[in-house]
Amino acid sequence: MADEVACFRYFDSRDLLGFVDGTANPTGHEIGASTLVGSEDQEFAGGSYVVVQMYLHQMQPWARLPEDQQEQIIGREIVSNIELPDATSGQKSHKTLATIVGADGTEHDILRDNMPFGRPGQGEYGTYFIGYSRHLCVTQKMLKRMFLGDPPGMNDRLLDFSTAHTGAVFFASAPRTLSELVQAVQA
């Protein structure tokens, strides 16, 4: 299947739902630690797992929601981008479901490089999710919590307004690995 989606930057890194996207991204030296396979897997060290999904948004039903309900679903204030407190029980926000904390209390980050897109002629508007991670299981757990819920049955309310239309997982090899493959083929 071939697909071409023209994406764009929107205001101050906002998605079409009105919220700043990628606020929890790692910065500085944390980027490599969150996105590049390390010494735990020498054969693939320096590579990154890449998950790509195209989400289509139902813009009119979303726009009819009161702002405070939109903020509760996302887990942040729209204008200020301030995080709202995490729910301790019941329905959790998108922000909370997409935050993965290990048994030792360590938060596991991914790098999100999401892009909004619109195809007005086709009535399609959405977000192209691109997530880079050191450990594929971190992104898998985020998606499991979003789609199945935490607790199970309490899925991400954002999915009431956004549908995953496509999705794929890739492994982006380190340049060293690609050079070794080229040398092996040439030999």
From TrEMBL:
<dbReference type="GO" id="GO:0046872">
    <property type="term" value="F:metal ion binding"/>
</dbReference>
<keyword id="KW-0408">Iron</keyword>
<keyword id="KW-0479">Metal-binding</keyword>
<dbReference type="GO" id="GO:0020037">
    <property type="term" value="F:heme binding"/>
</dbReference>
<dbReference type="Pfam" id="PF20628">
    <property type="entry name" value="Dyp_perox_C"/>
</dbReference>
<protein>
    <submittedName>
        <fullName>Dyp-type peroxidase family</fullName>
    </submittedName>
</protein>
<keyword id="KW-0575">Peroxidase</keyword>
<keyword id="KW-0560">Oxidoreductase</keyword>
<dbReference type="GO" id="GO:0005829">
    <property type="term" value="C:cytosol"/>
</dbReference>
<feature type="domain" description="Dyp-type peroxidase C-terminal">
    <location>
        <begin position="12"/>
        <end position="173"/>
    </location>
</feature>
<dbReference type="InterPro" id="IPR048328">
    <property type="entry name" value="Dyp_perox_C"/>
</dbReference>
<dbReference type="InterPro" id="IPR011008">
    <property type="entry name" value="Dimeric_a/b-barrel"/>
</dbReference>
<dbReference type="GO" id="GO:0004601">
    <property type="term" value="F:peroxidase activity"/>
</dbReference>
<dbReference type="InterPro" id="IPR006314">
    <property type="entry name" value="Dyp_peroxidase"/>
</dbReference>
